[in-house]
Amino acid sequence: MGDMNKKGAANEAKGAIRETAGKVKGDVGDALDDSSMHAEGRGEQLKGKIQKNFGKAERALDPDTHRDSTDSERNRRE
After folding, report:
1. Contact 3/58 with Cβ under 8 angstroms?
2. Which of 5, 26, 17 is nearest to 49 (CA)?
3. In the chain, what are the domain boundaries?
4. For 20-64, what is each residue's pLDDT tens digit?
5. Cα gap 57→15, rounded to integer Å
6. What is the pTM for the complete model shown?
7. What is the 3-state secondary structure (H, E, C) of 8-68?
8. Which one of 17, 39, 62, 66 is most buried, counting C-beta atoms within 10 A?
9. What are the C-alpha distances in Å from 19 to residues 16, 45, 72?
10. 24 to each of 19, 48, 51, 55, 64, how far by Cα in Å?
């Protein structure tokens, strides 16, 4: 697994966690009628979504990822 693939997987996981935590915080802010908490939560949710998508892009750009999938397909055909 290439270095970009590892970093991408880590960013994707951390981003998903951050996105979920932000959604929960925003929902709690809604429930408590706390606009500040709501805004903070939605901001964190957006940051998490960006981080998650950045991780996906890193993984897609890793040359080892493409080589590994090509090697796997070639081995199945042989």
Report:
1. no
2. 17
3. 3-77
4. 999 999 999 999 999 999 999 999 999 999 999 999 999 999 887
5. 13
6. 0.75
7. HHHHHHHHHHHHHHHHHHHHHHHHCCCHHHHHHHHHHHHHHHHHHHHHHHHHHHCHHHHHH
8. 62
9. 5, 4, 33
10. 9, 12, 17, 22, 36
77: tokens are 């055909």
- How far is residue 15's CA from residue 2's CA, in Å, rounded to a whole number? 20
Q: Which amino acid is at 64?
A: D
Tokens of 70: 């090509």
Please provide residue 2's backbone torsions phi and psi, each rounded to the nearest 5 degrees. -75, 165
- 15 residue type, one letter: G
Question: Given the structure tokens 């964190």, which residue do they identify?
Answer: 44
- Amino acid making up residue 6: K
